[in-house]
Amino acid sequence: MKVKHDEESRWGNSTSVSEFILLGFSSQPKTQLLLFLLFLTIYLVTLFGNSLLITLVGSDSRLHTPMYFFLANLSFLDISYTTTTVPQMLVHLLSTKKSISYGCCVAQMYIFLSLGITECILYAVMAYDRYVAICHPLHYTIIMNGSVCVKMVTSSWACGFFFAMMHTGFTMHLPYCGPNEINHFFCEVPAILELACADIQVNELVDFVLRVILLMTPLSLILISYAFILAAILRISSAEGKIKAFSTCTSHITVVTLFYGAAMFMYMRPASSYSPERDKKFSLFYNVVSALLNPLIYSLRNKEVKGAVLKMMGRTDH
């Protein structure tokens, strides 16, 4: 294990690790090769699907609406989210050296948290968009004008980077003096805290409070939005009208359920229940699998997106 002695640090004469070892999913060469091919395929499909959605939204005037503007931002987030962790995981699956420097680990944690928190808030913004569209259709274009949409997205990103700085700071200010093996495929907070050579009770409490705020606040806003949406749908007289109104929300409800379900299992529980092998699988789900499924869910259930794809293919043919 590499160590460096930083006598000028706040930890005095204690030693601190200069790098971490990411254990990943398996140490068996054959299994690693299979996992490499699987995750590479998932990553490439994720890049293609989300990049296609961004391209369609930018090129097709029929998709120049607030809902698709937010969806394009979600796709960009998903590309960034997976790129923060998956390429490194792929390299480690084919390499005998599975180390990551302390600085890179901090950077990865910060970027991952920033994007994750931003995505949590963006889902709430998208729920509000559906609320305005269904509950106030006559004022929709006025309320959700271009300037408001940009401000909402910018605020989501700003909150993500700010709270991620707090979360990362509370985690990485602790001394890490060994061991340096992280039983995970990237530098995630619960796995890192397990290696701290100091009392982490205060950190666990602060981290838990931050998780409650950052997960439950957006989720509460989503639930409130859909409570009003449901009430508005029930007031529609025709069955066809109810189905049409609700169909505009099904994709969003699906992706929110997938993302929040896995994220809440990971972060909304006491540290004593931490299980490395189980938690790696859940991290993989909300980090990689949800990013893969999001464009599929939105495109398969969406006539406008299908139409834009056909239009693009038609242009290509000509």
UniProtKB/TrEMBL annotation:
Keywords associated with the record: Cell membrane, Membrane, Olfaction, Sensory transduction, Transducer, Transmembrane, Transmembrane helix
Membrane topology, as annotated: Multi-pass membrane protein
Primary location recorded for the protein, binned into one broad class: membrane
GO terms for MF: G protein-coupled receptor activity; olfactory receptor activity
Cellular component GO terms held in the UniProt record: plasma membrane
Ranges for domain G-protein coupled receptors family 1 profile: 49-298
Membrane spanning stretches: 33-56, 68-90, 110-128, 140-166, 208-233, 245-267, 282-300
Intracellular or extracellular location(s): Cell membrane
Protein name: Olfactory receptor 2D3-like
Organism the protein comes from: Alligator mississippiensis (American alligator)
Organism classification: Eukaryota, Metazoa, Chordata, Craniata, Vertebrata
